[in-house]
């Protein structure tokens, strides 16, 4: 599934705005979350009801492989829900919180805080090899 297809759609209480990251397992979207947002199904598309956003969030959507059989997709969603439940209760300054999670029409998703800024990959692309003190600082943060 193309990540752009979900732009403007509603998952749970989140209206997906823009793709902000892509990986092998899925896509991350900038989204507006609203306590009163509820999806309305119309002509096989989810449309957002107008509502004031409570906060901007990042929503990671795990993109399912079209090659998976229905039973495999169901097993994947069951495993996802089983594994994410304990992770969602973790609280640590160096672990991204999970606000909520779920699945809509077989698409599993996580709602997390949106943290503006650049990635380590962006820094490495821009600066190349890092001086040892700066690299050590990043490693210290990663290991904490």
What are the key terms here?
single chain, 144 residues, alpha+beta, Phosphorylase Kinase, domain 1, 6-stranded antiparallel sheet, two-stranded antiparallel ribbon
Tell me what you see in this structure.
The chain has 144 residues and is of the alpha+beta class. The chain is built from three helices and eight strands. Mean pLDDT is 81; it is low at 38-45. Helices cover 26% and strands 31% of the residues. Strands 1-2-3-6-8-7 form a six-stranded antiparallel beta sheet. A two-stranded antiparallel sheet has the order 4-5.
Shape: globular
> Helix amount, in percent?
25-40%
DSSP E strands, number:
8
Q: CATH top level of the largest domain?
A: Alpha Beta
Oligomer kind: single chain
Mean pLDDT level: 81
Radius of gyration (Å): 17 Å
Topology-level CATH name of the largest domain = Phosphorylase Kinase, domain 1
Regions with pLDDT < 50 over 5+ consecutive residues?
38-45
Task: Describe how the helices and strands are arranged.
Layout: E1 10-11, E2 14-22, E3 26-33, E4 40-42, E5 45-47, E6 55-62, H1 70-87, E7 100-104, E8 107-113, H2 120-127, H3 132-143
Antiparallel strand pairs: 1-2, 2-3, 3-6, 4-5, 6-8, 7-8
Summarize the structure.
By secondary structure, the chain is of the alpha+beta class. The chain is 26% helix and 31% strand. It has helices at 70-87, 120-127, 132-143; strands spanning 10-11, 14-22, 26-33, 40-42, 45-47, 55-62, 100-104, 107-113.
């Amino acid at each position: 599934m193309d990540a752009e297809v979900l732009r403007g759609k509603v998952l749970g209480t989140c209206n997906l705005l823009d793709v902000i990251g892509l990986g092998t397992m899925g896509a991350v979207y900038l989204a507006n979350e609203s306590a009163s947002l509820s999806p309305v199904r119309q002509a096989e598309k989810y449309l957002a009801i107008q509502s004031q956003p409570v906060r901007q969030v990042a929503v990671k959507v795990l993109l399912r492989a079209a090659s998976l059989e229905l039973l495999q997709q169901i097993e994947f969603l069951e495993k996802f829900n089983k594994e994410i439940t304990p992770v969602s209760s973790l609280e640590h300054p160096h672990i991204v919180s999970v606000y909520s999670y779920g699945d809509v029409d077989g698409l599993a998703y996580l709602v997390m805080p949106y943290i503006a800024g650049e990635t380590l990959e962006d820094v490495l692309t821009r600066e190349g090899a890092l001086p040892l003190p700066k690299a050590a600082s990043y490693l210290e943060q990663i290991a904490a």
